[in-house]
Task: structure prediction
Amino acid sequence: MSPTAPASSSLELIALTKRYDHAAVAVDGIDLRIPAGSYCCLLGPSGCGKSSTLRMIAGHETVSSGDVLLAGRNITDLPAAERGTAMMFQSYALFPHLSALDNVAFSLKMRGVGTAERRAQAQDLLERVAMGHLAQRKPGELSGGQQQRVALARALITRPQVLLLDEPLSALDPFLRVQMRAELRSWQRELGLTFVHVTHSQEEAMALADQMVVMNHGRIEQAASPREVFNAPATEFVASFMGGHNVFDDAATGGRVAVRADRLALHLSADATAGQPHAHGQVCDIEYQGTYVLLGIEAGAGTGAARSIQVSLSEAEFQRQPVQPGQPVWVSWRPEQAHRLAAH
Result:
């Protein structure tokens, strides 16, 4: 954002582990490299270890074993203020009694920077996040989106090499969440910094990330681009968690495969599936989603499918062949549309 802004830095986690009470393992020896200047999203269900990972990178949690490297420098045991990282919290954690300007300038005050200089830097950052005109307002006088911009400016004033974001959009309403994620991505590109963003939202991660890291039970199930994660899920967990996929037994390979919901063809008789891999069941749910219709099908016994199959049809397809709840149906797919899942 300025000529003196630090260059972005790569971040590397080596066998990073977090144990609580000598028993519970929150993060289980993960290895991950996040390229400099990229937007990385740590994604997974509650309790998967993503927030513990972020806090260890930030220095807010001690590391049980393993290392955190920033630009090749081992920062594992450094205090949070000496790491070259900054955290933007889920709650924003703004001081309610301070103005937006003084909230942003606070960390520089703690470092002994003079009043005029720190306020000038804070005002500049507030201008850059379109909050300069509200610099004298207190957090309680700002909307959720405005508070987020102040929190971002406050995190950036220390000129970090890596910005860490802990579910920064979860407190916003759906419309504002979409708007703010576009702004986050724009700011990340403008800054050229490395962003590491924790979220439980698949949609959010897909929209923001260069690199998606899907976690489960303290381990990384897959780390790749959003397109690769969605189109080629590495494991059954990733396929199920990302949504939009169905998992079937594949007799040809003796393993499990994932097939996207929009790649399944719907049939009203078994004859139409001849020569193709297929499954059958009864329609249990119909959801109109505007441009498409999502069908839920309760899988029949012996199909090798999960309990429910999802089929995504365009509105025109559904109108050509409408179905009703309780109706028996068959689905088929072409072999090349099935993605083989790793065995466990």
